[in-house]
């Protein structure tokens, strides 16, 4: 079996390791390093230092963490990490650990600092602080404080509470700050981080998504060889970019499958069938399963039941399509392409290993002994980087910039039974809302704007000369960072008015448009 990412390793970019001490900040640090155009990877603090060093990092960043350095069971770090000649930058907990490990003093002073704090820079020309103001806002979150830097270190900043808020040792290339430079509220944080990378560690800002495309193409070719691969397209960004990358690497050895469940928005299926194929030249097998989904959903109003039915039918149709591809003449189909992203890999504890070999779950129709090796060319990337790769590969903006859309599609945006007529009606209303939001330049500001049909609700209206008894449409514009929490977007009244007028004028059977002004929590983003 070919080594999944060996080609990537051979030509590995200069890498910064971010050692994760259990903070929610580690991913943010990794992103900031990449924004400085230096490649970064997160490793757990439990990884032996020898293993970290075997990755040949050009610099190491120690993240913050929730512990106190003196707490029993607090994560520790082998001193060897500071003696390997690799530049190290400690932040918050990482800073304190560095201080204690190298002979400095960290006290539990009881003086806590949380949130925005004023930092006073005492050595303005230092490696970390050159060109930044002598007084700057930083984000703090700590209970312990460093009162004496280790020998050989210069104290370069302090706060009203913390005598040693930053220290630097240029000879050994070791640096640390008590605060969180990675968060937006630390006004010069990115500059300080870049100073560490470029001035402290001597790195160059050369990493781009263009390098990723080239590296991944080489890695995919090596992994797949002359076998074949399949990829399920959902219409979303991740699977589209993964497929386009693999297509570029192995051409006709890839077949994509798109299940048209009839629950997509207006124009989305055509986007995959026409625009995506035109942009990539990919071989696409479209399965028209609209009837099948409508039949399975007939008479069902309960949201959870709908989700289960849609999920079940989807897997059945997809596996049937796989089976048909497997039976075609030609080289064996041994690979399954997936658009797994870096946050998924880190969250599932997968770290930075090579692609797993997974046996495919067998729900409906595939022989038990079929195993696919996974091809996951986006495993190293964050979402915005995936969009950049998509752009680089020439995918249409409508696909690359697409907002999140749920797998069960419009099936969970019709409150009530899903029927063809209701889907068509909702598609029209949704298309109008999307068109007007795009025209008003609101696509970036709004994370997502579900348009929901309250099919089980009717209200009285007056349209033309007559009384109507139609359905309400709900607009649910939300702003969010990660969909875990969200607020309703205060969008301009004129845009709301335009959408409302157009929907009630143009969509038969709708006589009312309402705005959902509920945050999450308590409301979820989707209505079902
Ligand atoms: P909620 O409604 O839980 O949604 O606030 C959070 C985010 O997840 C999306 N979502 C789904 N995505 N399958 C998906 O692929 C689903 O079943 C599903 N349900 C919700 C939703 O659009 C939002 O971005």
From TrEMBL:
Keyword Transferase set for record: no
Function: Catalyzes the synthesis of GMP from XMP.
Chain residues that bind ATP: 234-240
Keyword field: ATP-binding, Glutamine amidotransferase, GMP biosynthesis, Ligase, Nucleotide-binding, Purine biosynthesis
Pathway given in the UniProt record: Purine metabolism; GMP biosynthesis; GMP from XMP (L-Gln route): step 1/1
Positions of the GMPS ATP-PPase domain: 207-402
Species in which this protein is naturally found: Streptomyces goshikiensis
E.C. number(s) listed in UniProt: 6.3.5.2
Gene that this polypeptide is encoded by: guaA
Reaction(s) catalysed by this chain's protein: XMP + L-glutamine + ATP + H2O = GMP + L-glutamate + AMP + diphosphate + 2 H(+)
Record NCBIfam families: guaA_Cterm, guaA_Nterm, PRK00074.1
Catalytic residues (positions): 92 (nucleophile), 180, 182
Oligomer and partners: Homodimer.
GO MF, one annotated term: GMP synthase (glutamine-hydrolyzing) activity
Top-level class of the enzyme under EC nomenclature: ligase
Coiled-coil portions: none
Protein name per its UniProtKB record: GMP synthase [glutamine-hydrolyzing]
Keyword DNA-binding attached: no
């Amino acid at each position: 079996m070919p080594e999944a990412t060996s080609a990537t390793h051979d030509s590995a970019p200069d890498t910064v390791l971010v050692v994760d001490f259990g903070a929610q900040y580690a991913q943010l640090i990794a992103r900031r390093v990449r924004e400085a155009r230096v490649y970064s990877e997160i490793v757990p603090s439990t990884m032996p230092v020898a293993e970290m060093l075997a990755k040949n990092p050009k610099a190491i960043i120690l993240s913050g963490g929730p512990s106190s350095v003196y707490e029993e069971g607090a994560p520790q770090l082998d001193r060897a990490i500071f003696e390997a000649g690799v530049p190290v930058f400690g932040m918050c907990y990482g800073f304190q650990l560095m201080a204690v490990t190298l002979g400095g003093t960290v006290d539990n002073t009881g003086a806590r600092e949380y949130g925005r704090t004023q930092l006073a820079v005492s050595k303005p020309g230092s490696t970390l602080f050159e060109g930044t103001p002598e007084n700057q806002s930083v984000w703090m979150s700590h209970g312990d404080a460093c009162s004496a830097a280790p020998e050989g270190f210069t104290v370069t900043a302090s706060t009203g509470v913390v005598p040693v808020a930053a220290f630097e040792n240029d000879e050994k290339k070791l640096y640390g700050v008590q605060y969180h430079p990675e968060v937006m509220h630390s006004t010069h944080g990115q500059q300080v981080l870049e100073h560490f990378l470029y001035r402290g560690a001597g790195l160059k800002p050369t990493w781009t998504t263009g390098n990723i495309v080239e590296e991944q193409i080489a890695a995919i070719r090596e992994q797949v060889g002359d076998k074949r691969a399949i990829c399920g397209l959902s219409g979303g960004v991740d699977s589209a970019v993964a497929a386009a990358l693999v297509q570029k690497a192995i051409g006709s050895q890839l077949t994509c499958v798109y299940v048209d469940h009839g629950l997509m928005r207006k124009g989305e299926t055509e986007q995959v069938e026409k625009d995506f194929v035109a942009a990539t030249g990919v071989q696409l097998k479209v399965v028209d399963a609209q009837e099948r989904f409508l039949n399975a959903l007939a008479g069902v109003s309960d949201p959870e039941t709908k989700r289960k039915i849609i999920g079940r039918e989807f897997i059945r149709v997809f596996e049937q399509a796989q089976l048909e591809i497997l039976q075609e003449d030609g080289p064996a189909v041994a690979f399954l392409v997936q658009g797994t992203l870096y946050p998924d890999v880190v969250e599932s504890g997968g770290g930075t290993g090579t692609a797993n070999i997974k046996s495919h779950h067998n729900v409906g129709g595939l022989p038990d002994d079929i195993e696919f090796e996974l091809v996951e060319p986006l495993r190293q990337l964050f979402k915005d980087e995936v969009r950049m790769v998509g752009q680089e590969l020439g995918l249409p903006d409508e696909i690359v910039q697409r907002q999140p859309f749920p797998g069960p599609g419009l099936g969970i945006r019709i409150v009530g039974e899903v029927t063809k007529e209701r889907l068509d009606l909702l598609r029209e209303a949704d298309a109008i809302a999307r068109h007007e939001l795009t025209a008003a330049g609101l696509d970036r500001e709004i994370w997502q704007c579900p348009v929901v049909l309250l099919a089980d609700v009717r209200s009285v209206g007056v349209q033309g000369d007559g009384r109507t008894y139609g359905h309400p449409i709900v607009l649910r514009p939300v702003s969010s960072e990660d969909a875990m929490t969200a607020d309703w977007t205060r969008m301009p009244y004129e845009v709301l008015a335009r959408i409302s007028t157009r929907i009630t004028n143009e969509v038969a059977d709708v006589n009312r448009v309402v705005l959902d002004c509920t945050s999450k929590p308590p409301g979820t983003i989707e209505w079902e």
